Amino acid sequence: MREILRGTLAPCLSAPFLGSCALGTMEDMKTTEHTILITGGTSGLGLGLAQRLQAEGNSVIVAGRRRELLAQIERDNPGITGVELDVSDPESIERVSRELIATRPELDVVITMAGIMEPEDLHTPAFLETAERIVTTNLLGTIRTVAAFTEHLQSKPDAAVMTVSSGLAFVPLAQTPTYSATKAAVHSFTEILRVQLADTSVEVLELVPPAVATTLMGQDEDTTGRAMPVDEYLDEVMQLLRDGAARGERGGEVLVERVKFLRNAAVEGRYDQVLGMLAASH
Prior knowledge:
This protein is α/β, with parallel strands linked by helices. Helices cover 41% and strands 12% of the residues. The protein has one domain (2-280): NAD(P)-binding Rossmann-like Domain (Rossmann fold, 3-Layer(aba) Sandwich). Helix 2 packs across helix 7, helix 4 (90-103) runs parallel beside helix 5 (128-153) and helix 5 (128-153) packs parallel to helix 6 (177-196).
């Protein structure tokens, strides 16, 4: 595992909860039975990913704030467990982590999908309340969740943490300054988490979505084709995870083709151009 993260197996950065690979060639996918917690797993990408991971033979726990929705998900998806959790509340994270570690000690994968995205106008200080809410959910929620489970995960032989950033972590959208900033911070935090945990059994991955047709900020109503269909996105993500997280192209980053326009803008000398394009498109 650590040889993979250090680059000894450069073509192959495997996700332990979905598959494995060998230098130079890809083995057949070997589904393993892991217990996976997905925060923000009650709708959109989170729920879709939960359903696909369960279909791969994993035990999945989805966490969210709405008790009625969690109950409905359990009814509609036998085998998926719902847990009430508010990632903006530190006490909720601490309580749920204690309960899960006690009742589901086999838990060995944590995916931090919970997040919010809202537009802001920076001309007046009225945006500040929105900004603080976004930071609390997207950034502190991610950090607190990781903190709550990291020690437990290190006791597992083949564990993983997957955070969720965004293509906007690499080129911000003028309409959503704080959202973009929090996703850039999640990316940076994940980079260092991977470095610090390189001597443990915990693999650290970062899911980097492009614009996807979810309800996050009305992209599900997009008619321009800019937003990627949810099923198409998740199908590509699952294939990348099976094949080894983009096969080491960006160590630990799960990048679909469509997000590379944003992800690689700076390194390819297109940053200013893309920043202007995003600003003009909204």
